Amino acid sequence: MKAKARAHTNIALVKYWGKADKALKLPLMSSISMTLDAFYTDTEFNHSQDLEQDAFYLNEIKQTRQQSQRVFNYINELRKKFNLDQNEHFEIRSYNHVPTSAGLASSASAFAALAASFAKSYDLNLDKTALSRLARLGSGSATRSIFGGFVEWQKGTNDETSFAKAIDENPDWDLHMLAVEVNTGQKKISSSIGMQWAQKSPFYQTWLNENQSEINALKKAIAKHDFTNLGEISEQSANEMHAVNLSANPGFTYFEPDTLELINLVHTLRQQGIECYYTIDAGPNVKILCTLRNSKEIISAIHNLLGNVKIVNASFGPGVQYLD
Ligand code: DP6
């Protein structure tokens, strides 16, 4: 009747940015991510005939009908899919352990924790592949949060074949990601809308054509623990994603002035021999890939540039876990 799960968020190094099927959230490209230890969501899913109405609490605060809509639609879709009792009510309690205002998207950890707690509460006995497919129906990036470490989401061609799998769940590698908060306000353009607009760029297809070779190259870099290659491929994938946004019709960008300041800082640091690379998602915040050894110096350079901005130093996180 009741189950609790924890899922960590992930950041894509080769980006997912476009859907072949909106309802099933089948992607147009494969992607590779790093699951992070510093950010996670705990979700308890409870279903019972005794509950009087469906409810969704986020960090103990009951969400309005409108705020709960995406979550309710998702649960109703899953109940239909598994032929479960549609009349029973459910209660969801989620806690986002994302350091306040770190400015990181939480839909990946949120839908992964929700899919896992839902499946466990109904004793569906799903393996991680099936859970990954289920999480995908909530949010594309959640597909990857079922696994820890480095994860590949193989785009597949249908609901059966589009799921994530671990490349290396427990990498023995000194690789860190500094999440730098530029602005924590609500996104101006949601990921779903942004990726739809981006497809209007004349360069979009060219980018897609490169997807498989970027995936192969990143997997090779991961296998060899080659930081330079991993960083270069990640930075390029982020640049390509933001380039198709700028070149869409009409063009748009998630960048803010401080985003560009940080991009320039990463270039300057590299010229000074401090190896680091950036990646940026559907917002102005910048994540910097580096080693732990260099992270102190990079953090102080960021503070020198932007004052007292919030920076979270993250490394590899685990896959989905069940909690008592
Ligand atoms: C830029 O997973 O948030 O973070 O599938 O519509 O829920 P939906 O989108 P979402 O998009 C994530 C886009 C990204 C890149 C990535 O995580 O691969």
TrEMBL record:
Its EC number is 4.1.1.33. The keyword tRNA processing does not apply. Belongs to the diphosphomevalonate decarboxylase family. Residues 182-309 form the Mvd1 C-terminal domain. Signal peptide: none annotated. The keyword Electron transport does not apply. One of its GO terms (cellular component) is cytosol. PANTHER family: DIPHOSPHOMEVALONATE DECARBOXYLASE. Transmembrane segments: none annotated. It comes from the Bacteria. Keywords: ATP-binding, Lipid biosynthesis, Lipid metabolism, Lyase, Nucleotide-binding. Residues 7-164 form the Diphosphomevalonate decarboxylase-like N-terminal domain. One of its GO terms (molecular function) is diphosphomevalonate decarboxylase activity. Pfam families: MDD_C, MVD-like_N. Coiled coil: none annotated. This is diphosphomevalonate decarboxylase. It is an enzyme of class 4 (lyase). InterPro entries: GHMP_kinase_C_sf, Mev_decarb, Mev_diP_decarb, MVD-like_N, Mvd1_C, Ribosomal_Su5_D2-typ_SF, Ribsml_uS5_D2-typ_fold_subgr. One of its GO terms (biological process) is isopentenyl diphosphate biosynthetic process, mevalonate pathway.
